[in-house]
Amino acid sequence: MDGSALEELDERIAGCRACPRLVAWREEVARTRRAAFTDWTYWGRPVPGFGPPDASLLILGLAPAAHGGNRTGRMFTGDRSGDVLYGALHEVGLASQARAERIGDGLELYGVRITSPVHCAPPANKPTPGERDTCRPWLVRELTLLRPSLRAVVVLGAFGWQAALPAFTAAGWTVPRPRPPFAHGAHVRLHRAEGGEPSGSREDLGGGAGVPGDGSLALHGCFHVSQRNTFTGRLTPAMLREVLRTAATSAGLPTTPPTG
Ligand code: SF4
């Protein structure tokens, strides 16, 4: 797709002030800062998606962290959750490096984009249902722009799953009824809605043997990379790498073979 449309969307998202509680919180955190980051000028705004405009795999989180994305201005950048996520992406060959410290640190994603259903850091990492719904049109627009190349999505956690399903419907895919429940390892195929335009084939994009060219989307569930999950071992690096490899295969992306 034309990358300028996505860039324009990212700029519009970064200027959004639609949720008064989140605007107040993200700006207060940016003013007060954490002791370890007093030399930083916090971003303090909505954090747009990160990754190429022709991504075939999308990773959907929950919302930026107060001292991570809200500080650095890039998804999952500058916090422990990001260390886990980018570490795994690098190990499976979908990121240029494991390190994610700040914009301009050289990190590149290969065929992958990362975004979230809520673009502002919420108090206690908990957006309200109203804030989730207010932010949804941004996700619908992003999905619509990515549609020509998008083949698979990894949703991190139940909140993202519930927030994303209506966005997939609004962006032109059919979500089964009753709605599929979130589970780690869940795999659901979303077909293009009747009358929706097929969005090209993988062959058009230069690869991906065995990936359907009917515009359908492989949806994969994965526990969130939050510290609560990774510190307790509920989500291990191996579990995360396995979901990423499976989803990359659904998306027609090459990965490095597992070691050991
Ligand atoms: S959460 Fe979304 S809708 Fe609300 S202010 Fe942030 S960017 Fe805007």
- What structural class do the secondary elements suggest? alpha/beta
Taking the alpha carbons of the first and last residues, their distance comes to 38 Å
Low-confidence stretches: 198-209
The CATH topology comes to Uracil-DNA Glycosylase, subunit E
Overall domain count: 1
Bound molecules: iron/sulfur cluster
Helical coverage, percent range = 25-40%
- Radius of gyration over C-alpha positions, nearest whole angstrom: 17 Å
CATH homologous superfamily name?
Uracil-DNA glycosylase-like domain
Q: Give the overall silhouette.
A: globular
Please identify the oligomeric state.
single chain
Strand order of the largest sheet: 2-1-3-6-5-4
- CATH C-level: Alpha Beta
CATH architecture, by name, is 3-Layer(aba) Sandwich
Largest β-sheet summary = 6 strands, mixed
H/E element sequence: HHEHHEHEHEEEHH
Number of DSSP-assigned strands: 6
Number of helical elements: 8
- Strand content range: 5-15%
Mean pLDDT, all residues = 92
Family: Belongs to the uracil-DNA glycosylase (UDG) superfamily. Type 5 (UDGb) family.
Domain Uracil-DNA glycosylase-like: 48-244
Protein name: Type-5 uracil-DNA glycosylase
Keywords: 4Fe-4S, DNA damage, DNA repair, Hydrolase, Iron, Iron-sulfur, Metal-binding
What report would you give on this structure?
Keywords: 4Fe-4S, DNA damage, DNA repair, Hydrolase, Iron, Iron-sulfur, Metal-binding. This is Type-5 uracil-DNA glycosylase. There is one protein chain. The protein is α/β, with parallel strands linked by helices and 260 residues long. It has a single domain (3-251), classed as Uracil-DNA Glycosylase, subunit E. It contains 8 helices and 6 strands. It has helices at residues 3-14, 20-32, 69-72, 80-91, 129-146, 158-170, 227-231, 237-251, and strands spanning 57-60, 112-115, 152-156, 173-174, 187-192, 217-222. The chain has a 6-stranded mixed β-sheet with strand order 2-1-3-6-5-4, with helices on both faces. Helix 1 (3-14) runs antiparallel to helix 5, helix 4 packs across helix 8 and helix 5 crosses helix 6 (158-170). The longest helix has 18 residues, at 129-146. It is globular and about 50 Å long. The model is unreliable at 198-209 (pLDDT under 50). The structure holds iron/sulfur cluster (SF4). Iron/sulfur cluster (SF4) binds at residues 13, 16-19, 22-23, 46, 118-120, 131, 134-135, 138. Iron/sulfur cluster binds at residues 13, 16-19, 22-23, 46, 118-120, 131, 134-135, 138.
